[in-house]
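User: Okay, second chain of the day. Same drill as before: sequence in, structure tokens out.
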Amino acid sequence: MLVGADADVINTDDVGHLLEALDVSVDAGEFFCDSSYSNVAEALLNNFAEIGIRSRLRPLERAAFFKAYAEKSLKNIIYGGSGAFGNAATRLEAFYVKGGTYVYGSYPDIDAMFQQQAVELDHNKRAAILQKMQQLAHERSIYAPIWLLGFLNGVGPRVGESGFGLIPGFAYTAPYEDITLKAA
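Assistant: Same drill. Structure tokens below.
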């Protein structure tokens, strides 16, 4: 099953049966990813194959991947993600608004809302505009939330010092040598 941001559930069995009933097999072309995520991409390709979508994995070295992604030279399926700092506005600008680093196409209404929020001084009005932009991006499936990485971090009742927050802005438990366990 694929689960979206608002827990919309797409039953992959239904999609597979529909494609089978229509006698449709889709060739989606190449599937590009940063080579460090090849294992995730292979799992996604297997999921696609189960519902009749064929694709070929093309992992690229990280610098080459992000260069090609920014130059808009990757086609078909791109498995990309961002761990960049920022708020909703900076993320929307990079991925959804015309001229953004990773934007392959845009919607004029979302572009206009971005310009509107950029000059809005009222915090609540700006937040409402950004919320509407995110809602439109979700409704139009501009990006498909198909995989959520779950990182392993040391927390729990037996952990003395987890390491969370020891390095400001770092999302993981680190430095690892500072993680401690409580005495038994």
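The longest strand covers residues 26-34.

User: Thanks, on to the next one.
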